[in-house]
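Lab meeting notes turned into a lecture example. A postdoc, R.K., suggested we walk through two folding results consecutively so the class can see how the record format repeats. The first protein's sequence and structure tokens come next.
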Amino acid sequence: MKYKGLLSIICLVLFAMGISACSTKKVEDAKGHILGVAPITEVFPDGWKTTAIVIQYDAPIDSSTLSASDYKVITDVEGQKITRVYTNTAPAKAVQGVEGPYVILELSHDYIADTATATDTRGIKSVVPTGDGVAPNPIRRVGNISWDPASHPGTLISKNQNLQAVDGKVVYVYQVGEIETTTGAGYSAFENQDEAVANYWCINPIVDDSLKSNHIDKDYGSVKYNIYFPEDYDKTRSYPAVVFLADENAAGGKHADVLTNGGIGAVTWADPAEQAKHECIVIVPAYRGAIVDENDESVSRVRQGSTSNTYLCILNLIEWLTDKVPNIDIDRIYLTGQGSGARAAIKMMIDRPDMFAASLLFAPDYDPAEMSKLKDANLWIVTSEADNQAAPSMDKCMKAIEAQGGVVGKAIWDGRAGDEQLATDVRNMISEGNRINYSVFKAGTLVPESLTDDSADNRTYTWRKGYQIEGLKGWLFTHEMTREGHLGHVTTITKVFPDGQKPVAVAIKYDTAISSASLDLGDFRVVLSDAWQAAVKDNKGLVNIDIHPTKIYANIAPEMTPEGVDGNYVIIELSTDYELPIRTAMSVNGDTHMSVVQTGDIATTDGETISPDSKVLANDVVIRMVVDDFQQYYYRDEETGGTVMCNLYVPENYDKTKSYPLVLFIHDASVVGDNFLPTLERCYGASIWAAPEEQAKHECFVLDPQYDKGVVNDQSEYTEAL
């Protein structure tokens, strides 16, 4: 005991002298305690920038022990500095930090992306933590649009494999000072300062909030697209939709390219501040190059022997989405675009005057005679006087519109004016009440002094500045499409049976809610399309199958349900108890089209009567049950250089912590084709495994390759395709 007392006295003396020889503090190399690193990125008018870096430790960090000098970082841009350091309980920036395992390093980003010097990262040695670290939530489903987007978030997974970012940015972090956990443990500077910690993930607010999917069109190829749903999305409500079309410089082959490369035009609508003003669904197609050329013609491309047309594919995508997402208000679909995307938008307005309620376009060019057809459209055009392409073209177009009797509001804006002045300029033009507005930035006022004030920069800065002006975006939402009558779109719903694909229902969309109790099978006549009638004729030229209505009710979505509910859709279920001839099953793909005529009175939920309409409405959308739940991919084999189309089904409640069986289906030679769908539409063997009733018994992945030629010949010899 006397020795213990003596030791206590010695420790007290040393403590009083400021000597910590009796401390039991444990200090270890911080590198072994880092679970993950991730950049936080944001999209600005002039580009995509890293604004912070998240470091996740294995224990909460004491924020009082942190300083900017404790870290050294390397990003994709030279000279970015750490401006603020704090801790947080989540991998996100915060106004006020709180104690947690995440250290947030905020970075300077007051540079112009066009003139920034890229960092040469060759020769940097680094290690990537193998744990989940700051990984975002996984995609629970990779099928087409979900009925419940909140349960299927679209996460931009930015893998850094071999230090090559797929979709995101790469950052390198060195800890050069000692920090402490909240329990007093010390994490020292990296012992090996020649090796950084690099990221595997990339956190991209707003960009990550969009669901990323592909649309396969039977006639025009496929197109990737991003779709954003409001944070508090409610499928019982109706929402306006904004469609953004990028210029050719922003367009790219990946979903995220169009969101990050072209300024804020694609993401501004989903920004929380904008959603608070105008809650909306945002649709952003992703494509390569211009989709409408300088002759105002849609561009067709040939890939893998198939001809595609992205412009027409996007138009069909919008039609498809209005039925797949039933709470898109078809009278409040808005179009916006920049550069060649604005040119494509003008063509869409001319080709589909019944689709878009209003358009906001930056720096387009178009043929004046054709554009004069838009004299009655709701349209706002913004250009720069110094843009030698867009300004002269739009000057002529406005004159052509006026020559046809259209009224155009015009104004010259000072690009260097303050935000309030530009907002006032917008309000002044709106107060004039013109359907068409034409605003032009005065030459010499738009491009930053550090850049060349040439035509190209003026063109680009038209939308960089324009999308920031208060009131311009809000103008779109003041417009609504005016239609004659109540009928809207007609959708055919199909299902694959053992003998082929059959129509199981048609859905008719009205502009008001229909009383389900008021409906009778005699109120409508359903007619097979000419293509189907030709396909199902027997050798005597007679249609030898009987497709007739069996049930009718209303619903809030274009889907079948055991019991109808009042809603904007009338669902007419069809008989399927017939057998398709083999040649019919093999020849009818997506051409399962139907026409509908209203022949009797029906009632709205407000008590209004909608009288019969002699107009014949053909369906413009096909919803393929189960088939639409497959995701399409091109797989390229590095060893052989061969490419194969693949359809993949992922279980609806996919959980990355579980393992699943996989079923591989190989189709027969009768459905060889150059697009993804024949094996799904004409072969029961693929879709049956993904059917809800089968998934309830045996949850599994389903892989269904689509071959463009036979894989085994009649001598049982495999071909190169296999």
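The second example is placed directly after the first for contrast:
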Amino acid sequence: GAVSDLVQNDSFQFAATDHGIYRSENKGLTWNQLIIDGLPGYVAEQLSVYENLVLARVRTGHHLDVKWSFYKSANNGDSWEEIITPDSVHFAQFAINEFGIYISDFHHLLFSTDGGEVWNTSSISHLGFFKALDVHENKIYVASGNRFYKSTANDTWNAITVDGLSESISSLHVFGDVMFAHAEGASELYRSGDGGDIWAKVPGLSLSIPETSMVKIGDTFLMPGWGDILRSDDKGVTWESVSQYPWNASKMINIDSLILIGTYGPGIIRTDDLAETFKLSNQGLDAALGQSIAVNENNIWTSSINNGLARQNKLSGLWDTVGLSPKYEIADILIHQDKIFVTYFYTVFRSEDDGETWTHLSQFLFNEVNRLYAFKDDILTGGISSFGSSLLWVSHDSGDSWDVYNFIIEDKVRYPFLFASRNNTIVTSDWDYIYKSPDGGSSWDIISNNELLDTCICYVTDLIVTDELIMALTIGQPFGLRRTFISRDDGASWQYLEDQSEPANFTGFSFATHKDNILLAVGSIPTNGLFVSFDHAVTWQPFMEGLTTKNISEIVFDEEYIYAATNGQGVWRRKIEDLNTTSLSDGPGKSNQISVYPNPSNGNFKLQADDVVESDGLLKITDIHGHILLSEKIQGLASTEFHTPDLIPGIYFVSFQTSSGIYSGKVLIQE
């Protein structure tokens, strides 16, 4: 999640994020979203505050249809009204002080003394090329070229030249007589300690520093660099890197020596020890992490590529960072036998103390390890590599040593890179085939050597195995086309999932199972989102109530909840009991069982629901391949008799779908 700006007044802290504007009244510990009436979806880009007046620049639309708007609130964000700015002003910055509102872009500097009703051209507007606008101790500072101007009264200015600066000033930081100016497009920072009369280039900043913000605590200054936090203990004369936290920071604010840092990654982080340690400050903020996810007894663990690893205590509900530096781009998390494993590019790390300390286990050169699996006592890692070959590695000693996972079929060594298991059954895949072992890896068979998969021109990106079926997510031609295949006969035959289920065009991205229920995150538009099946993937229904994003990357369970990771749009949860009491807003309601008797049957059988169902519904009978053999609307389902002499021996699934729920069962037909 991206936090583009942070500001504060005496009572609140405000955050501008790509999900809207948030407010905190407890130094950033928890956040609440502020609502702008008539603007349901927007990105907040910049904020400014003076006493109870809050000003916001927001962006709506996409790509070529982008619109920027300005809003103000006179009551700390409780209500908002739009400010109409001149059409000639674009991409404006703004600031507020006791004299009014100032806005600037490359060509204009305007001000309003009546809250934005009437705009006046500043006396220095003709200078143009305004790149920075800031407020300090109620004075407005605006930069043009290598000069900046300080307001001493309403539209009255004093010019200050930054000697030695050949580039334009792109940002300003003013702390009384100590001032800093960033040079645009250069790794240069200039400092003045006498109110702007004499300037000197700050030495030792050989790497680019972002043009963001700076805070002061006593004589100590902090500012974000690229990949670290920089600190000066001599009023900004010299700087050193004090932490390797490579979140690209947007803004820092100081709240009584507590520093909040807005980032373009994990949201907001906090430090109360001059950047020695950090914690997340995201409670209630939608800009939370959520790429991959895992849960154990005490914590919820989540990560986002480029943004490190975080955990939330289940009891307190608060997020913090862990001992593993966020410079590691965590791709997957696994909790196995009280140990936590994470993958980083070519490396696996392990923690045995709930994330406090980490052990570097191994480096798999030129083989990205972006997935983690557990099978009995073994740990496996692998995945599809961007460089070099894609392999699967196995450790029999909790990661202390690793071997390439392989097996022999038809006198050829096979090297899979995906893995799934259920009890003692293993299903794996390489670039060519899907393989299955019914005995924990002692023997193997190719289970995808059939016409449908052979003509797919695709490769498998994820696998799931249950007692009833095998599902494979694939990607292939046309470029990027995703399809979900399903087999109910141990891989002897495969079908497209979209050929047998509603809604059509199921192009899955992630699977999860809980007992006999299957959850599928779907990526086809407009029917994407999260779906659940109660009858082994014969029928599906949406499972989206309360979930505001359809971009779901992973689904996991603990004893009480379902957790969904959403590609950086937060971590969401829902009670497991809701799987069997799905509300009408999700789609059809709860799932009940249909009793079939006699069972096994010779083709003549009766259906009896758990509860008497009197409403109309759609009855379906499908075979193990998902082919619909019977589909008809009937009035109610109390005790219904069927005569199906044409059914050949085998297993068949029965479902009855109504507006209030799905009733399902299965029957074995014998001769």
